[in-house]
Amino acid sequence: MSEKIRIAIAGYGNLGRGVEASIRQNPDMAPAGVFTRRDPATVTPAEPGTEVFGWSALAEHADRVDVMILCGGSKEDLPQQGPELAALFNTVDSFDTHARIPEYFASVDEAARSAAKTALISTGWDPGVFSLNRLYGEAILPEGETHTFWGRGVSQGHSDAVRRVEGVANAVQYTLPAESAIEQVRDGSRAEFTTREKHTRECFVVLEAGADPDQVRDAIVTMPHYFDEYDTSVTFISEDDMARDHTTMPHGGFVMRSGLTGRDQRQLIEYGLKLDDNPGFTASVLVAYARAVHRLARAGEHGAKTVFDVAPGLLSPRSPEELRADLL
Amino acid sequence: MSEKIRIAIAGYGNLGRGVEASIRQNPDMAPAGVFTRRDPATVTPAEPGTEVFGWSALAEHADRVDVMILCGGSKEDLPQQGPELAALFNTVDSFDTHARIPEYFASVDEAARSAAKTALISTGWDPGVFSLNRLYGEAILPEGETHTFWGRGVSQGHSDAVRRVEGVANAVQYTLPAESAIEQVRDGSRAEFTTREKHTRECFVVLEAGADPDQVRDAIVTMPHYFDEYDTSVTFISEDDMARDHTTMPHGGFVMRSGLTGRDQRQLIEYGLKLDDNPGFTASVLVAYARAVHRLARAGEHGAKTVFDVAPGLLSPRSPEELRADLL
Known about the structure:
Chain A is α/β, with parallel strands linked by helices and about 325 residues long. Chain A has helices at about 15-25, 80-85, 100-115, 130-140, 155-165, 180-185, 195-200, 215-220, 240-245, 280-300, 320-325; strands at about 5-10, 30-35, 50-55, 65-70, 90-95, 120, 145-150, 155, 170-175, 200-205, 230-235, 250-260, 265-275, 305.
């Protein structure tokens, strides 16, 4: 093992804490600090050795960080931070507003290319390892259908979006898959499902004092990209209920590819995740991709990248020889 | 779409026929012939348009084939054909004797580099997409265990190995997973299983006239790499029984990665295949990788490669822009 890969964290919420923990599971990596827009004196890292810096200290750390992992939200943080930080660092992020990925890719790509940096966008599990399985499934079984199911679980991105609605003090959003649709796909049905037939969304919301529930509910269920295509329920609860019933962040889901080969050979690929903690898993994916980004950057592969551009072997700390001998 | 990728087939058994069918599912590919060591006049391709050539015609087709897919067996065909054909063509194969992959890689690598060709070895589903999932699982959840389960299904490689035993007229081998072990992994058990605890192997064998059953049974159950580490049953049946009960080739299995993140967050990744037809699926994987090999060869990436070296996007006929917009 040569020198350790120095990984820093921009933004210190659940995802940032997950990244901090994950770095310590990887012996070829070293923590290179947390960067926060808050007053750094108010931020207490989970691991005693982690240094905390203010946002203004970013530029002076450009030479002390191999990869910066962006842990902000997709709605308000990353559209600005993605290009801003890709001009200073090699980066990895979990930008997850699917509909806006092309424009986000373009803006990060321009910043990264100008600065000769490598910026991997939109990883985690969806987008991320689920995207990989959609691609592999479609490429291997070109005559077939792909179905993605999520849940039951808390969606960080959607919870975040609800929390940003005016009048919302706190909120959590659960996505639920329709078991009947999953079973139909497993049984080889070629049925097509509408978005509404596959999932529902449940929001539990604590209102700010004086907020109008009807106005909040309406703002949520009509929110483009996030809720407008789903049957969404909004339940108003107290902060006590929230603290008691909604503190863990389990999630999961399936990517299924059902296809035909030869004359009538039915083939089914099913990729499933069962996660105790969504940000903890997402963080682990970001950290594995940070290793790949470090290697791509060293090889001069600059610009924005996605999981589709990364050879799987680049994710592993092990040598190609070891991987061939042990995992192939 | 530019010119079609010309794909040829070396060896025309179940896998070769699967590749022939799969090429026709991919509009960016064109069949460039079947090459057989038999008399080509005796080989009738499944698709009317497929041309059949003798083995001696290989060299003269070097400029008319973009990628040659090797469809011979791992035990006797590929160790010789892999390097031989990688000196003439870009190749893809399904070499599946796990223990011998390093030496096979080295011999193909040398041949391919000398000829400035690209040779992807050991793809299909195991090795192949199962290998990918072992690698992704381990890289994402470094603190955890990986378990691979196969079956119930016919293993081509193992059936082939049994058929090559002296005294065997015909044979089929089924691999069976232990459901109890699968459930233990799903439930978060960190139990370690021995090879024997995870699977058993069942062989159904038609003897040649005059063959000694005990000698055949002994040759099978002690065969290194294939059977010596498993509980293997050998049942002798008639050719009629074989034709009635053992003509389809279903298979399947799971790669599971169970790991911990943070303090005690249990995360489970499960990749499963449920295949009506094993060679039909393997063929589809080979064909998808042929597209990637064609692109790698054009980019000057020569030598032997494995699935670990191939960025997922190279498998898809779609552009990076489309993939980001539709699948990420």
